[in-house]
Design brief:
about 140 residues, alpha/beta, 5-stranded mixed β-sheet, 5 helices
Length: about 140
């Protein structure tokens, strides 16, 4: 049975969002939520409804040695907030070491040079990397 997923790259200022195709095989960047301008939990709930899924993949930031520091705690706290506010949510966690670095490198190689230009898309690309990592692990 096929399943659709939404993934999040949760940061203090922005949340990158990606979604899978209907077969749950390929990740695509979707949007960046500005946490200062938008009620992010509400927007994530809307995205889940728009995509007819309750399956959420979340990147957990870890240090290079695999340990979790304060940023991982913040992500886990936010995930708890999502669970309390969105009924029936199914959460999958992915180690997201270096996803933002990888996304930034991909943008630079693709010709996007300026920090402002990258900032608009890097988080949703990082979310797509997180989701693709998860989807590939299921094969």
């Amino acid at each position: 049975m096929f399943k659709k997923y939404i993934s999040l790259d949760i940061g203090d200022v922005r949340i990158g969002v990606a979604r899978s195709d209907i077969m749950g095989l390929v990740a695509t960047p979707l949007e960046v939520i500005d946490r200062k301008k938008v009620k992010s939990v509400k927007r994530i709930s809307e995205i889940l409804n728009e995509n007819n899924t309750k399956s959420l993949v979340v990147g957990i930031p870890k240090s290079l040695d695999g340990t979790e520091k304060r940023q991982a705690e913040k992500v886990r706290e936010y995930v708890e907030k999502l669970k309390k506010n969105i009924d029936g949510l199914e959460i999958f966690e992915v180690d997201e070491r270096l996803t933002t670095v990888s996304a930034d490198r991909m943008l630079t190689e693709g010709g996007k040079k300026g920090a402002l230009e990258k900032r608009k898309v890097v988080d949703k690309i990082a979310a797509a990397i997180i989701l693709q990592t998860f989807l590939d692990s299921k094969k």
